[in-house]
């Protein structure tokens, strides 16, 4: 599949800027191999790289054990690492990005949140280093596309460094933007807003996030916004703000789930699980994903609907993430305790309620799981979009299956034919599981068809296309 319109902005060189590199290292029997990353962001951005006639990917170098040359042989575009002082990393990444912005932007602030000036300084310095690296390679007519909450200051740093005004700068936020009431708690909120306003186009997944951004710009910076046209007037520039929901590479998912070897693995998985109905949960191991509440809901389900015991099993995959942060280590322990508790309570010889895997699976096994599952249980407490929900739908494009989806995921705006639930309400979720288990096949297929129409129409190519077209609009 190619992009729908080959617009003239495709002629610009694309400079993609992310915190994470588009590959990772794996250690097999003591030998290090470089593999392309398969996570959400990279999977979503590769089509943009393919689309551009020339492309460069700029990122930090978390996997700094390897040389640029060895990486370059493995990935099909030029990669440039931002080499900042390693003493800045903890404050920039684990500190300000992941202990402050991540929970705040997901509306999950609590007493544990600390605003530390040192971490903020490190965040600024690393953002400045990103801007310096971009300045070194950029040339007139480039399109610079900066991604996510770790790099909010880069657009403004580029303006301060007097980047060529012909160069268009896009910024896309992959996580929610919080309401003014929450955002105003951030001591450096004004700087973050000004940082983002360095871009020509600021993209969010859904309109709610754009409206929150407008509210903050108006209240904190006292800047004029034209909401009906999605424009902000700032420093003699016009900045466009738009909701452009990210999609998935639907064709790729279809290819996976049509693959004979994957279908065979899916069948084998079903046989091994034994239960009549299989529920899946697939997440990064992150407190925003609502894994604990989901497991509690499953416990309630077995308690309230005892006839489904032995009939219904769940596989929960939790991919370790940000393992250096204490809160994530604690969450992992809590999940393991709860899985043990539920299995201890309900397991019988020959039947285990929950199979829990705490590791990353290769795509083959991941898509076998998507294909095998009768129910996709996707219940984040808050999520910018959530690609797992869309991948589950795509994996069931020509058969039955039920998606239970959190109302607090961006994806709920589009996937209205899912069973929508409040992820904090474990009673309601237990009832939703019961509804899904009992849903007639014809109803499942009717809903799946409608969900698939949406994700096929608004796929990842549509997202790239819309973002680049918007960035070059002049009206
Ligand atoms: C952020 C925002 C937004 C998962 N396990 C494995 C694996 N995955 C892949 C999935 C999916 C991706 O990781 C996860 O994407 P999500 O969207 O669910 O979540 P975040 O990582 O939090 O992403 C989110 C997204 O950015 C894009 O804008 O939707 O709201 O938080 O693609 O398939 N891939 C492999 N093995 C696994 O075990 N290979």
Can you characterise this structure?
The chain has 475 residues and is an alpha/beta fold. The protein folds into two domains: 5-247 and 460-471, Glycogen Phosphorylase B (Rossmann fold), CATH 3.40.50.2000; 251-457, Glycogen Phosphorylase B (Rossmann fold, 3-Layer(aba) Sandwich). Helix content is 44%, strand content 18%. It has 17 helices and 17 strands. Strands 5-4-1-6-7-8-11-10-9 form a nine-stranded mixed sheet, with helices on both faces. Strand 15 (375-378), helix 14 (387-395) and strand 16 form a beta-alpha-beta unit. It is globular, with a radius of gyration of 22 Å. The structure holds GDP-alpha-D-glucose. GDP-alpha-D-glucose binds next to helix 1, strand 12, strand 13, helix 13 and helix 14.
Ligand roster = GDP-alpha-D-glucose
Strand content bin: 15-25%
Strand numbers in spatial order across the main sheet? 5-4-1-6-7-8-11-10-9
Quote the CATH topology of the largest domain.
Rossmann fold
CATH domain class of the largest domain: Alpha Beta
CATH architecture designation of the largest domain: 3-Layer(aba) Sandwich
Percent of residues in helices comes to 40-55%
Number of strands: 17
């Amino acid at each position: 599949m190619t992009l729908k319109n080959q617009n003239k902005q495709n002629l610009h060189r694309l400079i993609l800027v992310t915190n994470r590199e588009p590959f990772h290292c794996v250690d097999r029997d003591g030998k290090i191999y470089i593999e392309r990353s398969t996570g959400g962001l990279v999977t979503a951005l590769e089509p943009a790289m393919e689309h551009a006639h020339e492309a460069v990917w700029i990122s930090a170098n978390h996997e700094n054990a390897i040389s640029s040359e060895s990486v370059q042989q493995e990935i099909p575009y030029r990669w440039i690492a931002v080499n900042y002082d390693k003493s800045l990393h903890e404050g920039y990444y684990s500190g300000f990005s992941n202990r402050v912005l991540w929970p705040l932007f997901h509306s999950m602030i609590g007493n544990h949140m600390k605003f530390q000036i040192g971490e903020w300084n490190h965040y600024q310095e690393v953002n400045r280093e990103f801007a310096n690296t971009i300045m070194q390679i950029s040339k007139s007519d480039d399109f610079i596309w900066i991604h996510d909450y770790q790099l909010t200051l880069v657009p403004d740093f580029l303006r301060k460094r007097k980047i060529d005004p012909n160069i268009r700068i896009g910024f896309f936020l992959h996580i929610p933007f919080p309401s003014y009431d929450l955002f105003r708690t951030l001591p450096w909120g004004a700087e973050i807003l000004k940082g983002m306003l360095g871009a020509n186009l600021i993209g969010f997944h859904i309109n709610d996030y754009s409206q929150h951004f407008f509210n903050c710009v108006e209240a904190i910076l006292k800047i004029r916004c034209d909401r009906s046209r999605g424009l902000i007037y700032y420093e003699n520039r016009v900045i466009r703000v738009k909701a452009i929901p990210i999609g998935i590479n639907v064709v790729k998912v279809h290819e996976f789930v049509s693959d004979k070897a994957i279908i065979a693995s899916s069948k084998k998985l079903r046989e091994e699980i034994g239960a009549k109905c299989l529920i899946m949960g697939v997440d990064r191991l992150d407190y925003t994903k609502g894994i604990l509440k989901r497991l509690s809901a499953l416990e309630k389900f077995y308690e309230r609907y005892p006839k489904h015991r032995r009939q219904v099993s769940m596989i929960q995959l939790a991919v370790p993430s940000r393992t250096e942060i204490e809160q994530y280590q604690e969450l992992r322990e809590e999940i393991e305790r709860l899985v043990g508790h539920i299995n201890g309570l309900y397991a019988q010889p020959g039947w285990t309620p929950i199979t829990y895997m705490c590791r990353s699976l290769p795509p083959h096994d991941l898509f076998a799981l998507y294909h095998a599952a009768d129910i996709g249980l996707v219940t984040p407490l808050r999520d910018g979009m959530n690609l797992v929900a869309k991948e589950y739908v795509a994996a069931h494009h020509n058969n039955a299956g039920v998606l239970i989806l959190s109302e607090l995921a961006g994806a709920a705006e589009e996937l209205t034919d899912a069973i929508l639930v409040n992820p904090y309400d474990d009673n309601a979720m237990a009832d939703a599981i019961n509804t899904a288990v009992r849903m007639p096949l014809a109803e499942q297929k009717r809903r799946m068809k409608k969900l698939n129409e949406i994700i096929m129409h608004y796929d990842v190519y549509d997202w790239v296309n819309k973002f680049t077209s918007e960035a070059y609009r002049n009206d």
